[in-house]
């Protein structure tokens, strides 16, 4: 019988499910040293957010097959160490969706009708009704930033309140938005049009400070801002100044950059409502995440594939050794494609040619999805969960395999919204060999400027001169063209980052049709 250690408080629904799979021991508030001592006797470990599952604990877990997190985030689990030791990490990402959506609606009403302020006034012995003139939500426009699991649930409830709903989400397909009767719009449009704005994106680098002084200034003076997602997405210092100036009219937050937030100046403002990160804190949600994570742990212990694996099962060493450089290549091709051509990735087409087509390419599909989506999601994307995440965003994957048709023994082509990039692996190194009709030879790692321009004298020199004036060093240069005096492409590998003002100046060079700054990280898809 399997032995399961529950190291944080877990609702009885979850404990009952685990007891059907094995012997359950509940021991909470264990220090790392105590867990290291106990864990060798257990097959499964279940935690919430209090217990830190560190590398020493995972290394000591010689019998450990799975770590279950009752909730979404796995920041308290060393996932890389778990993967190295062949331990599956599972979570329960859907159990608290309704609770978070309902809390968002609660905060929406709180700032529409000054509920907290009126309550405090009554408790202080005051009865000044005129101070609390509110607004109705019926007929107003709700702007949802992030149309994922929680955002889409908020949208459904807003329709029930007779609100119009618009949304911004760079990785959700139009078809998925239409399922919720939601219009997808650019972020600036959303901020200008919405009467209420609610945030439901993850805190990844692309979203840090997503709503800052510029964005706040675009909102209607009477608009209200709600954040139940993560602290750090909204610039709190900028929000303080904006609320003091009365634009937007009010804000309500459940999450903060620092938690507990201490003496946050926002708390001194009469038009700011705060709750202590309780969006998921309902009896039903706690029971739901407990049962869901127990189901995941039970699946692993039974030798089945769980629905919500955070990391992927290990491939046979020889297969992984062959596929790993192709996975790195595919991820970078997809990331480069997204940075060069942008657009909403409703369909990702992947062609695998030559020897590669004879292998299981699930890891490469996961790498492509990761390359497209990683800057816009906090999900850890791998071969286990990539297709699930993509389908949840309304994204379709078209995969084709064929015999070698050119001079490369293996070739990968990534195609999205009319543009395609191809690459191969040469001497264990990934190489980009084609961008649309232009043949290139590019190692996809580092910083690049990629331009499409008219093939005429002076353009390349002008770009080099401007970079020199700004102390940006060029490491290498590649230029291709489709015909003399026709269209040309230039790829500059550079040592230094390019700031927005410099990029804008380069884009204004006479004859420049298109120019992008690209960063490709040194990394790869998790196995």
Question: Explain this structure to me?
Answer:
With 527 residues, this protein is of the alpha/beta class. It has three domains: 2-94 and 284-301, NAD(P)-binding Rossmann-like Domain (Rossmann fold, 3-Layer(aba) Sandwich); 97-274, NAD(P)-binding Rossmann-like Domain (Rossmann fold, 3-Layer(aba) Sandwich); 317-520, D-3-phosphoglycerate dehydrogenase, domain 3 (60s Ribosomal Protein L30, Chain: A, 2-Layer Sandwich). It has helices at 12-19, 32-38, 55-60, 79-84, 97-113, 115-123, 149-160, 174-179, 187-193, 213-218, 236-244, 283-301, 317-341, 362-373, 386-392, 459-469, 500-507; strands spanning 2-6, 22-26, 44-47, 66-69, 88-91, 141-145, 164-168, 183-184, 196-199, 224-227, 250-253, 272-274, 347-354, 396-402, 410-416, 419-426, 429-435, 438-442, 446-454, 474-481, 487-494, 512-520. Strands 8-7-6-9-10-11-12 form a seven-stranded parallel β-sheet, with helices on both faces. A six-stranded mixed β-sheet has the order 14-13-15-16-17-18, with helices on one face. α3 links the parallel β3 and β4. The longest helix has 25 residues, at 317-341.
Summary, kept brief:
This protein has 527 residues and is of the alpha/beta class. Helices cover 33% and strands 24% of the residues.
């Amino acid at each position: 019988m399997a032995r399961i250690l529950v190291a944080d408080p877990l609702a009885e629904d979850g404990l009952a499910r685990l007891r059907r799979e094995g012997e359950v021991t509940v021991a909470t508030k264990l220090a790392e040293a105590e867990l290291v001592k106990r864990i060798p006797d257990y097959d499964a470990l279940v935690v919430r957010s209090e217990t830190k599952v560190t590398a020493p604990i995972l290394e000591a877990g010689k019998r450990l097959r799975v770590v279950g997190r009752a909730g979404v985030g796995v920041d308290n689990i060393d996932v890389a160490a778990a993967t190295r030791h062949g331990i599956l990490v599972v979570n329960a990402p859907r159990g608290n969706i309704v609770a978070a959506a309902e809390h968002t609606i609660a905060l929406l009403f709180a700032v529409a009708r000054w509920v907290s302020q009126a309550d405090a006034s009554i408790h202080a012995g005051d009865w000044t009704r005129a101070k609390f003139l509110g607004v109705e939500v019926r007929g107003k426009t709700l702007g949802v930033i992030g149309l994922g699991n929680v955002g889409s649930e908020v949208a459904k409830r807003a329709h029930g309140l007779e609100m119009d709903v618009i949304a911004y989400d760079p990785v959700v397909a139009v078809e998925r938005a239409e399922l919720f009767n939601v219009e997808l719009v650019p972020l600036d449009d959303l901020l200008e049009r919405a009467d209420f704005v609610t945030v439901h994106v993850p805190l990844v680098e692309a979203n840090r400070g997503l709503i800052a002084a510029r964005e706040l200034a675009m909102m209607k003076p009477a608009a209200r801002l709600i954040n139940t997602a993560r602290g750090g997405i909204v610039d709190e210092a900028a929000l303080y100044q904006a609320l003091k100036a009365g634009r937007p009219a009010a804000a309500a937050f459940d999450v903060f950059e620092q938690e507990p937030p201490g003496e946050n100046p926002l708390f001194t403002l009469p038009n700011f409502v705060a709750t202590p990160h309780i969006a998921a804190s309902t009896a039903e949600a706690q029971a739901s995440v407990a049962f869901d994570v127990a189901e995941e742990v039970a699946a692993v212990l039974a030798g089945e594939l769980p629905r919500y694996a955070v990391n992927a099962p290990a491939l046979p060493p020889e297969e992984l050794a062959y596929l790993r450089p192709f996975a790195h290549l595919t991820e970078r091709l997809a990331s480069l494609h997204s940075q060069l051509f942008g657009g909403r990735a409703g369909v990702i087409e992947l062609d695998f040619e030559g020897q590669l087509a004879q292998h299981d390419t699930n890891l490469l599909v996961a790498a492509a999805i990761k390359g497209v989506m990683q800057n816009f999601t906090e999900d850890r994307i791998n071969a286990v969960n990539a297709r699930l995440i993509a389908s949840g965003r309304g994204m379709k994957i078209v995969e084709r395999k064929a015999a070698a048709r050119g001079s490369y023994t293996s070739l990968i082509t990534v195609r999205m919204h009319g543009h395609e990039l191809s690459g191969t692996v040469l001497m264990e190194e990934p190489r980009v060999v084609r961008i649309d009709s232009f043949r290139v030879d590019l190692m996809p790692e580092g910083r690049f400027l990629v331009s499409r321009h008219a093939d005429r004298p002076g353009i390349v020199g002008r770009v080099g001169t401007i970079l020199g004036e700004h102390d940006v060093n060029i490491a290498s240069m590649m230029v291709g063209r489709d015909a003399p005096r026709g269209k040309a492409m230039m790829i500059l590998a550079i040592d230094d980052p390019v700031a927005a003002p410099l990029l804008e100046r380069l884009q204004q060079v006479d004859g420049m049709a298109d120019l992008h700054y690209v960063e490709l990280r040194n990394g790869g898809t998790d196995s």
